[in-house]
C-alpha cells in the first residue's frame, strides 16, 4: 500500500514597503527566511534608487540635474529602460515624464501624508514634456532630461521589483514563490496545486475583509491599476494618481480597476496603467495586445478580454491573496 504525504501549505510574510504592502508566499515554509531577505534587499535597492520622496535617492539627484547630462547607476539604468519601453509600447500613455504633473496635483509626498481634502485650487494641467525628449545612452548610462522635467518611475519600478525579487527568490530556494507589492504580483517556480489563488478587489487590502472574485495564477504575473485607492480631494475635485501625459490631469474616470495578466509584472502593470489612461479606448487597445484582462467600470460592469475566465469565489480568508 502506498501513502501520499500532502505538500505543506504555503508560508507567508506581510510587511509595509514602498508606501504599500509587500506580501511574500513560498511553497516550502523552510525557505521563507531566505526568500524574505531577497525581497527586502530588492525593496531597499529600489527605494534608494527610484523613490520620489527620499532626498537622498538617485531619482531625486537625477531630477535636480534636469537640463544637464548625468551618469546613472546600473540599477537606475535598468529602471529607466523599463519605463522608456513602457512609454514606447503604449505610444506614450504610460510616460515617466509625468513627475511634475503628479507633484502639481498634490501628490508631492508619501501618499499617507497627502492632504485628504486640500482647499487650494487645482493648477491648470500641462502636458508632460514627453519621453521622446529624454536623451539617453544605455551604453554609457549618460542621461539628460529636458529642463524642468521630473521623472516618476513609479508606474514600472514597483512591478520591476516584483519581477526581480520573485525570480531571485525562486532561484535561491528552489521552491515556488509569489511576490505581491500592492496590486503587482509575480510568480516563479513550482506552484501550489491549483495555482496561487488571487482575490480581486479595488484595494488589495480590502480582499482580506471583503473577498470578491478570484483567479488562479500558475506563473507569470498579474497587475491591477485603479483610481479608488490613491485618491484625494483638492479644490472641490476628486483627484487620483494615474495621470494622462497628454493633459497633465488625472485620467478620466472610466474604469474603477483594470487587471491584466502577462509574462512579466512590468508588462502587466504597463498594460493596466495604460488602460486606465486610455479610458474608452482601452478595450480596443487591450484586445489588440491579446493579454488576458478584466476591466471594472464605475458602475461595477465587468469586461473580460483575452480569455479572462468567468469570476469564481475568492479563497478562504486565511488563504493566499
Q: What is this entry, summarized?
A:
This protein has 321 residues and is of the alpha+beta class.
Q: Helical amount among residues, as a percent range?
A: 25-40%
Shape: globular
Q: Structurally, how many domains make up the residues? A: 1
CATH homologous superfamily name?
ApbE-like domains
Q: pLDDT average, as an integer?
A: 89
How far apart, in Å, are the first and last alpha carbons? Answer: 37 Å
Major pleated sheet:
8 strands, antiparallel
CATH top-level class: Alpha Beta
Please tell me how large the radius of gyration is.
Answer: 20 Å
Count of individual beta strands:
19
CATH architecture: Roll
Strand content: 25-35%
Secondary-structure element order, as H and E?
A: EEHHEHHEEEHEEEHEEEEEEEHHEEE
Salient structural properties:
321 residues; alpha+beta; T-fold; eight-stranded antiparallel sheet; three-stranded antiparallel sheet; 19 strands; 29% helix; globular; disordered N terminus; disordered C terminus
Question: Could you explain the architecture of this structure?
Answer:
By secondary structure, the protein is α+β, with helices and mostly antiparallel strands. The protein has one domain: T-fold (Roll), CATH 3.10.520. The chain has an 8-stranded antiparallel β-sheet, covered by helices on one side. A hairpin with a 4-residue loop joins strand 14 and strand 15. It is globular and about 55 Å long. The relative contact order is 0.14.
Amino acid at each position: 500500500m502506498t501513502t501520499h504525504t500532502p505538500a505543506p501549505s504555503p508560508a507567508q510574510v506581510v510587511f509595509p514597503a514602498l508606501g504599500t504592502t509587500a506580501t511574500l508566499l513560498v511553497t516550502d515554509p523552510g525557505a521563507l527566511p531566505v526568500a524574505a531577505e531577497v525581497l527586502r534587499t530588492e525593496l531597499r535597492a529600489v527605494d534608494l534608487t527610484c523613490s520620489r520622496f527620499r532626498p537622498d535617492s538617485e531619482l531625486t539627484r537625477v531630477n535636480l540635474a534636469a537640463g544637464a547630462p548625468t551618469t546613472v547607476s546600473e540599477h537606475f539604468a535598468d529602471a529607466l529602460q523599463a519605463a522608456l519601453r513602457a512609454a514606447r509600447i503604449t505610444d506614450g500613455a504610460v510616460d515617466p515624464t509625468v513627475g511634475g504633473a503628479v507633484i502639481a496635483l498634490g501628490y508631492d509626498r508619501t501618499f499617507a501624508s497627502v492632504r485628504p481634502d486640500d482647499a487650494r485650487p487645482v493648477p491648470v494641467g500641462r502636458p508632460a514634456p514627453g519621453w521622446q525628449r529624454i536623451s539617453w545612452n544605455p551604453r554609457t548610462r549618460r542621461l539628460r532630461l529636458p529642463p524642468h522635467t521630473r521623472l516618476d518611475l513609479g508606474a514600472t519600478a514597483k512591478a520591476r521589483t516584483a519581477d526581480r525579487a520573485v525570480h531571485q527568490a525562486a532561484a535561491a530556494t528552489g521552491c515556488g514563490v509569489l511576490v505581491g507589492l500592492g496590486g503587482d504580483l509575480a510568480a516563479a517556480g513550482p506552484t501550489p496545486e491549483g495555482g496561487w489563488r488571487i482575490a480581486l478587489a479595488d484595494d488589495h487590502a480590502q480582499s482580506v475583509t471583503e473577498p470578491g472574485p478570484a483567479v488562479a495564477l500558475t506563473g507569470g504575473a498579474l497587475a491591477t491599476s485603479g483610481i479608488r485607492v490613491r485618491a484625494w480631494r483638492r479644490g472641490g475635485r476628486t483627484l487620483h494618481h494615474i495621470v494622462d501625459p497628454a493633459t497633465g490631469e488625472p485620467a478620466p474616470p472610466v474604469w474603477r480597476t483594470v487587471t491584466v495578466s502577462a509574462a512579466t509584472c512590468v508588462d502587466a502593470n504597463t498594460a493596466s496603467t495604460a488602460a486606465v489612461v486610455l479610458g474608452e479606448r482601452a478595450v480596443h487597445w487591450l484586445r489588440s495586445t491579446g493579454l488576458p484582462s478584466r476591466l471594472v467600470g464605475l458602475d461595477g460592469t465587468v469586461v473580460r478580454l483575452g480569455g479572462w475566465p468567468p469570476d469564481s469565489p475568492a479563497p478562504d480568508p486565511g488563504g493566499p491573496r
